[in-house]
Design goal:
- The chain is α+β, with helices and mostly antiparallel strands.
- The chain has one domain: Alpha-D-Glucose-1,6-Bisphosphate, Chain A, domain 4, CATH 3.30.530.20.
- It has four helices and seven strands; from the N terminus they run ββααβββββαα.
- A hairpin with a 2-residue loop joins β6 and β7.
- The protein is globular.
């Protein structure tokens, strides 16, 4: 799925994530429900690849997670010279309680960080909370914050049925904003 040349809207302060402790970044977004629909976009490779990355995910404790990112499939923009067009992340499921909670390591131990997705119904909407823990330094935190924010924008676009935000320019702009928001 390709993103068009849609202009980036102004991001309200409430949509920015924040640091909740040492090495911990958290971002929240309300999405259209039901909760099972949002869960499938997190756990089914075909739906996940539309906004994030695909690959197998064993939805059980200690299950293997293999995420394959192909950014050129998310956007019509050229991949910047200083960026990789694709990458892979391997991890292990640490907690899984469908359709409300999924947590897995991001990378391999001993240096792995951990990502948790929490889903909470709110009437016809679903609150998605993403918490990324064990981030080693400020620059990693900035990259992770901009990355999650950009991917959530793409997920929101998927639910809205419209064109996707351009990946690279959105991420670059958000990195600049998070760099000033997440001061040392």
């Amino acid at each position: 799925m390709s993103g068009g040349g849609q202009k980036r809207r102004n991001t309200p302060d409430s949509e920015f994530g924040h640091v909740t402790g040492p090495g911990v970044f958290r971002i929240e977004r309300e999405l259209p429900g039901p909760i099972e629909r949002v869960w499938t976009y997190l756990t089914h490779a075909e739906k996940r690849r539309k906004w994030f990355g695909d690959g197998p995910m064993q939805l059980r404790s200690d299950g293997r997670v293999e995420l394959q990112f192909r950014f050129s499939e998310l956007t019509s923009e050229q991949t910047p010279a200083n960026e990789q067009d694709s990458c892979a992340i391997v991890g292990r499921v640490t907690r899984c309680d469908p359709p409300r909670l999924l947590s897995f390591t991001w990378g391999e131990e001993p240096d792995a960080s951990e990502v948790t997705f929490e889903l909470t119904p709110r009437g016809e909407k679903v609150l998605l909370v993403i918490t990324h823990r064990r981030l080693p330094d400020r620059e990693t935190m900035v990259r992770v914050a901009a990355g999650w924010h950009t991917h959530i924008e793409l997920l929101s676009d998927c639910f809205a049925g419209g064109p996707l935000h351009p990946f690279w320019s959105t991420k670059s702009l958000l990195q600049q904003k998070y760099r000033s928001r997440l001061r040392a």
